[in-house]
Design brief:
Layout: H1 2-22, E1 25-30, H2 36-48, E2 51-55, H3 58-67, E3 82-86, H4 92-103, E4 108-114, E5 117-120, H5 121-128, H6 133-164
Antiparallel strand pairs: 1-3, 1-4, 2-3, 4-5
Helix pairs in contact: 1-3, 4-5
Length: 165
């Protein structure tokens, strides 16, 4: 029986290790005190943002973090800790959890990992204010479009003026 438990624990550690290795962004949060309805709402918002939300035993996370070289995260594993993983948008878990925590004071951001760099709660809140990649790209394209549109209007006005003259 003990051998079976060991196999299960090793599989969990391997799963956490894989998620930590693949994720662009990970946020650790204290979820204690959230109602079932609030937790369900949070999970729905995270799912919509493409973020995976899990709760693991801290001992399992500690073992996995050591194996992938993220020992600095171990000090944040006190009490009940949930983990939000994003594989595409590094800022998505921070953004969703931070927005949710504004209305639900029981949810507390503890730390995060963005591209293998560990950040504390205040730094994660700052990272949460960074717009998503799509928003940044659309802003960049918008800034390219404005001067080109102005140039097109100018050239059109010049050509119409020549035609009228």
């Amino acid at each position: 029986m003990e051998n079976k438990n060991r196999v299960i624990k090793e599989a969990k550690v391997a799963e956490i290790k894989e998620k930590l290795s693949k994720a662009q962004g990970v946020v650790l949060a204290n979820y204690q005190g959230l109602t079932v309805e609030e937790d369900t709402e949070l999970r729905k918002k995270l799912r919509e943002a493409g973020v995976e939300y899990k709760v693991y035993k801290n001992t399992m996370v500690t073992l996995a973090a050591k194996e992938v070289g993220l020992d600095g995260v171990i000090s944040y594993l006190e009490g009940p800790v949930s983990m939000a993983f994003s594989y595409d948008d590094a800022t998505a878990p921070a953004r969703v959890l931070n927005d949710f925590a504004k209305d639900h004071k029981k949810l507390e951001l503890k730390a995060g990992i963005v591209e293998n760099q560990i950040y504390g709660a205040e730094q994660i809140k700052a990272i949460a204010s960074i717009p998503s990649r799509e928003v940044l790209i659309s802003k960049l394209l918008g800034s390219f479009k404005a001067p080109l549109s102005n140039l097109a209007y100018l050239l059109n006005a010049i050509s119409e003026k020549k035609e009228n003259a």
